[in-house]
Give the backbone structure.
Amino acid sequence: MKYFEEAKNIWTTQVPRSGQAKTVQGELMRAVEKFRDEAQRNGNTNWDQGFEILASFLVETLARDESLDEESREAILEDIHLVTNGQHPYTNDDVYDRLADKIVEWSMRKGKIVEHLPNPQLRR
């Protein structure tokens, strides 16, 4: 992981113990860690609509970021698809770590904390 300390900082300062984060950075990190935990601990047996909502959020925010070139967006989209396949849990850390690095890079490009509006349909 390239940005371990930066990712840890987002996790500890912007991800609440429960519920959705108040920042986009925190919610992105929370989503990736939800996918990692579900795959590694439960084999995606609890996969539901909540995970689908989080997957859409990752795609819309990271993979469709217009500040990235097409190749970078495609690589992020491939990683998201690997970790959001409810039928086939991805249990290695490499892709989750790579996505966490992309979140840190996204945050650095933004240069500021971005407010996240909670999704009332999300229960994860």
Remarks:
- The chain has one domain: 4-110.
- Residues 4 and 13 are 14 Å apart (CA to CA).
